[in-house]
């Protein structure tokens, strides 16, 4: 089971390295890592498990964040109703994800982004594309997938794919004014 001790932080130079493509079919070691990354995300969102193992909650995790330079990321974003039941869940373990198209319209998270590899939150607006289309091999379904994402999922995919190229969310801040509003952007709560 992955825990916070397995996640490297932004002081580790490895976090700035570019990850390498993965051969398909995926070898067992890589598959096991993808599943462990996915399980970390699920566990981190379970109050009991998260508290027991001192896990920071996360919705996305890239392989480089656990010290492996492979182009793989996991996403787990459940939508929960007032009764605590999951009504929808965006969940993937993506291998070799590629951004194939995006809208010019910007978006950003109103309260900013966070990252498991950034122990001290950096405050600022992170401009992202409002809509993206990503192609990848999904280990959860063992199929090639095309994901058209908007809103929070779009931002999460872009954040995790940045990790694969050694980019952290605060690299996108406006250097002169990190809180400068972005005109015409969709603000996501």
TrEMBL record:
It holds the Pfam family Pep_deformylase. One of its GO terms (biological process) is translation. Fe cation binds at residues 115, 159, 163. The keyword Cell membrane does not apply. It catalyses: N-terminal N-formyl-L-methionyl-[peptide] + H2O = N-terminal L-methionyl-[peptide] + formate. Gene3D superfamilies: Peptide deformylase. Its EC number is 3.5.1.88. It comes from the Bacteria. The active site is at residue 160. NCBIfam families: pept_deformyl. Removes the formyl group from the N-terminal Met of newly synthesized proteins. Requires at least a dipeptide for an efficient rate of reaction. N-terminal L-methionine is a prerequisite for activity but the enzyme has broad specificity at other positions. This is Peptide deformylase.
